## 1
Amino acid sequence: MRTGNARLLLVAVASGGGSDHETSAIIRCAISTGDCELATPLSSEQLLLES
C-alpha cells in the first residue's frame, strides 16, 4: 500500500524457529531513500492493511 508521503507500507510475518508462533509487524519505507522502520510494534496478532 502506498501512502500520500511517498512511503510504502508492508506487512512482514516471521515464523519458524522451531515453534508454531508467528510474529507480525507493519514496516514503513521511504521510497526516495529506501530507509525503513517499524510502523507498529511486533505483534503475535494478525495485522492487516486497509486502503
Note: The chain is about 0% helix and 50% strand.
## 2
Amino acid sequence: MADLLDATPAAPPALFEGPVMWVPEFLVDEVSPPPRESPDAWTVRNIQHETTIIVGESADETHSDEPSTRSFEPGDIVSFCSFQDFGPITVRIHDDGSVDTLTPVHPRASLFWAEGDPDTLSFSLEEFARNWAANTPQRQPDEPETGVVEHYTWSQPQPFVLTTTSDGPNFLRADADAVPATGAA
C-alpha cells in the first residue's frame, strides 16, 4: 500500500458535506466518471432519433466494461447512484488496528480510503484501520501513525424515468410522487 498516511493532517470544517452528485448505475465501477450535479446533467438530445443519450466523460472514452453512451426513449427507467463526499478526516492508527479520530467522522459515511490508493477502500473506519495496521509496516514500533483518510458515501441505485419536454430531456424519480431529479438525495 502507498504510504499516504504521511500526509499533513487536514483540519476540515466540522462535518463537511459536499453536494450530492449522480452517476448512472451502469457507469459505476472501480473507475467511474466524475459524478454530475443531477441525473439530467447526463443527457443530450439526439435530434436524428429523438432519443436521449447518457454520456460518460466523453463519447470516445469508457470507464468500465460498459459502453460510455447508451440510448434511451421517453418512459425508460434508468437507475442512478448518488455520491456525497464528506472530505478528509484525521486519524491515529495503532499497531493493533485500533483507531482514534482527531476530527469528526460524518455519521453517513460508508466508504473510507487513503486517497489515490484503491487497495485501501473499506466499508468502515475500523476496517480501514485494521487493514492499514496489518498491511503497512510501522516506522516506529508501538507508536501510532497519524494521517488523513477520505470518507464519503454512495447510495443504492435509485430509479428515474426519462421524460422529454420542450426544454429537452429530464429525469423524474420513479416513485409515487415523481419529484423532478435534483441534487438532493
Note: The chain has one domain: 1-175.
## 3
Amino acid sequence: MDNALIETTGTFIGWQDAPLENIIHAPEDGMVYVTQKIPGFIPVALYKSLVKMALTIIPETELIHLQRTLEWISEDSHGDSKFKFDALCLYQGKVESSLREPGISALIVKRKEQIDKENPYLMFRLTYGSFMFQVPIPLSDQDLTLGFSQIPYIPTLFDLKYGFNRMQLGKMNLRISETVRMEMTVSFKDLDGTGTLEYIDDNE
C-alpha cells in the first residue's frame, strides 16, 4: 500500500492524490475511507514534546517539584534513560470536523490537597480544531509513582457544549523508546446528502 497524500487547510480536505487501493467507498452510508501511512515516530519523544509544552505555561512556583522532569526531558538518549516507566498515559480525542472548535487552548490542572495522591499532581491538556491530547506531567516529587496507566479525564469546552458522548476517546501508552510505524484511516462523510461523495470509475 502506497502512502495517501491528504492535505487540509482546516476547512478544506484534499485527498485526490490518494492511490485507489487506499480508498474504500461505502455509497450506502455516504462515506469514503482513506488509509494513510503515518511517518515513523518515537512514542516517548512525542510524550516529551507535550511535557515541554506544559512546562512553558506551568507557574514558576511549581517548577521546584519538577526537577526530575526537567532532567528527564534533557536526556541525550530516549533509550538510555535513568527513569524507567511502567506507563506514560496519553488520552487522545477527536470530533467530527463539522463540530470542530476554532483556536487552540492549553490547560494545566493541579491536584487538590484532599484528592487521593494516586492521581497525578499535574496534568496538561492541549486542544485544537477537532483534536484533544491529555497527559500527566511525570516525575513530580508530589507523586507516589513515576508514571500513570490511568488518569482522570479533563472535560473540554466541546464536552460542555455538545455533551460527553460526542468525542471519540482513545488511550495510548507512550513509554516505548523505539520508532513506531502505523497507518491511519480518515473518513469523509456526505453530511448534507447532496451526493458530493460519488464514486467515479476511471475505466468509463
Note: Residues 43-55 form the longest helix (13 residues).
